[in-house]
Amino acid sequence: GKAIIDALVRGLEKHGGSLRLRSHVEEILVENNRAVGVRLRNGEVIKASRAVVSNAPLWNTAELLKTQTQKSQGAKTFVEFANRVEPTPSMCHLHLGIKKAGLPETIEAHQVVVHDWDQPIDSPQNLVVISIPTVHDPGMAPEGYHVVHAYLAGNEPYDLYENAKDKAEYEAIKEERTKILWSALERAIPDIKDRVIEGVNMTATPLTHERFLRRHRGAYGPNLPAGKTSYPGPKTEIDGFYRCGDSCFPGVGVPAVAASGINAANTIADISEHLSLLQDLRTSGIYDDSLTKSLATAESS
After folding, report:
1. Helix (H, G, I), strand (E, B) or coil at 205
2. How many whole angstroms separate alpha carbon 213 and alpha carbon 170?
3. How many CB atoms lie within 10 A of CB 37?
């Protein structure tokens, strides 16, 4: 949550970086097949001193490179790759605030409900995930209340919502598609509808994902089946252009995305910077390489 974001911002600013909000990137600039900067929607150009890194989803990143495909083979290759990769289905969410009086102290923070074990686990509306983070962090809500999040994980069709002819039909689809979420929640908390706080009952759909999170078709991530293909690493066919995020190895989810950022940083940094960082960690006592040295000594003998 916010603590992770705040820590990332502190790290960025500690090393001389700055975070710019509401700065929509319109295109990635490429010269002689090298990424040299970005152009913002307001026309401002930000030049890259060393590299350009995108953590946007694969297809959104490809949109930023489409204007460069005529003069850069690397950009053309990247866009063609993005066009070949299918996105996964999207998600549907309920975000609630509820009264917790009378609920057992032993209530589980995370629960999974599978409605039909005879169907594939990723069938539409078959698997519901329930999260009550205030079980572990009560400070996320006022005293006496819980935050509840229930969602269909990567199995909600985008087309259902995209084809709604007007707002009334869209709202009707939302109501119908969230019935399964309410059903799952009632298995965990039978009287949950009576506990919901007025005004703290929000539904998010694939269109919500697309609009507010800039997810291509509201996708959960790329559909790259294990054993058939693999997630790409940080390097691209464009010099000085790297990627991280949930379209890169090791995949989807906060821990995996964080690891992809480390991969990108390690790839950009040269060996002298790696060695300098290790020395800083040794000096500060964060990293103890005595075990590594012991293993190396054992192997040499």
Report:
1. coil
2. 19
3. 16
**CA 277/CA 268 separation, integer angstroms:** 14
Q: Dig out the tokens for 121 from the structure.
A: 């686990």
CB atoms within 10 A of CB 30: 23
Could you read off the pLDDT of 111-147 as tens digits, one per residue?
999 989 999 988 889 999 999 999 999 999 999 999 9
- Edge to edge, the sheet with strand 34-40 lists 25-31, 34-40, 45-47
* Cβ pair 61, 54 in contact under 8 A: yes
d(CA 260, CA 122): 25
What DSSP state is assigned to residue 86?
P
Token reading at 164: 């709604």
Q: Crossing angle, helix 58-65 and helix 73-84, to 10 degrees?
A: 150
Whole-number Å distance between alpha carbons of 282 and 42: 45
Question: What is the per-residue burial (b if ≥16 Cβ within 10 Å, else e) of 196-208?
Answer: beeeeeebbbbbb
Round to whole Å and give the CA distance between 141 and 123. Answer: 33
Whether residue 124 contacts residue 155, with contact meaning beta carbons closer than 8 Å, is answered with yes
| Average pLDDT of the chain, as a whole number | 91
pTM of the predicted structure, to 2 decimals: 0.82
* 8 A C-beta contact, residue 80 and residue 65: no
Pairing, β 52-54 against β 241-243:
parallel
Q: Residues 92, 149: contact at Cβ < 8 Å?
A: no
